[in-house]
Specification:
Strand content: 15-25%
Strand order of the largest sheet: 1-2-3-4
Shape: globular
Distance between the termini: 21 Å
Helix content: 25-40%
Radius of gyration: 14 Å
Largest sheet: 4 strands, antiparallel
């Protein structure tokens, strides 16, 4: 799925600080299939034109910060085009993903 072809519903940075604990962050990264030591990560929760939930993930937090600042400054959330080459796309939102029992992301 092309990241630029979804509607962003929510965006944030995911880090130890935003999750609140190292264990919580490591668990989140494992569920997302990410390596905790390569974060923090940018997260965009989106919906496709068919209404399916997708999660966009990036390790380019500078790009995500720019996107978040632009959205905050303009209050525009529709029609924003994201650079799809900067994101990995996962089906569903984190609340839809199975919680891993142990270990870290790939």
């Amino acid at each position: 799925m092309d990241a630029s072809r979804c509607t962003a519903e929510f965006a944030a940075e995911v880090s130890v600080e935003s999750i609140g604990s190292v264990h919580g962050y490591e668990t989140w990264c494992a569920a997302a299939g990410l390596k905790p030591d390569e974060g923090p990560y940018g997260l965009v929760l989106g919906t496709t034109e068919h209404g399916d939930r997708v999660t966009l993930l990036t390790d380019d937090v500078n790009y995500m910060a720019m996107v978040l600042q632009a959205v905050a400054a303009s209050q525009i959330t529709e029609g924003i085009e994201l650079a799809s080459e900067r994101f990995v796309v996962r089906d569903g939102w984190p609340c839809d993903w199975p919680v891993p029992e142990t270990g870290h992301g790939r």
